[in-house]
Amino acid sequence: MSPVQDGFATDDRIRVLCVDDYVDTADSAATLLKLVGFDSRACYDGPTALKVARDFLPAVCIIDLHMPGMNGDELAIHLQAMPELRPLLLVAVTAMDCEESRHRIEDAGFHLHMVKPVNPYKLVEVVDALFQIREKRRVGTQFVAASR
Fold first, then answer.
1. Strand 8-9 and strand 4-5: pairing?
2. Tens of pLDDT along 37-93?
3. Alpha-helical regions (H) of the chain
4. Is 83 left (phi over 0), alpha (psi -120 to 50) or beta?
5. Contact present, 94 and 115 (Cβ < 8 Å)
6. Is 1 helix (H, G, I), strand (E, B) or coil?
7. Cβ neighbours of residue 98 under 8 Å, at least 6 residues apart?
8. Cis bond leading into 87, ω under 30°?
9. Of 37, 40, 12, nearest to 28 (Cα)?
């Protein structure tokens, strides 16, 4: 594995971790992001994602909010507590678009909320845009209608 600096591999590819208990969703997102040039991996539960993140050192984590065992907001809090992952950008992905989900996402420190089904083009656009937002120091919780 190549060394990592600030979420980038030495070949300058942005590292993205896709976490969803639905295997096809996590694998599809990771594959799509690889095809367009990101360095991405898929995980299917929170505890595995924590282990993978320690070695992979992602710059962005795309996390399903509703997973059995460790849910997405709990995973986000654990990831943010890992100093080796700072700065880390977090994207919550959920089929739920309700007030409760929005509060959970905001409270957990996610930077972005995308509603399933996520348009694949929008996913790539969002990962790219997050770095521009971070560079301008304007990162905050934003809502994205990703199915359009």
1. antiparallel
2. 889 999 999 999 999 999 999 999 999 999 999 999 999 999 999 999 988 899 999
3. 23-35, 46-56, 72-80, 99-108, 120-135
4. alpha
5. yes
6. coil
7. none
8. yes
9. 40
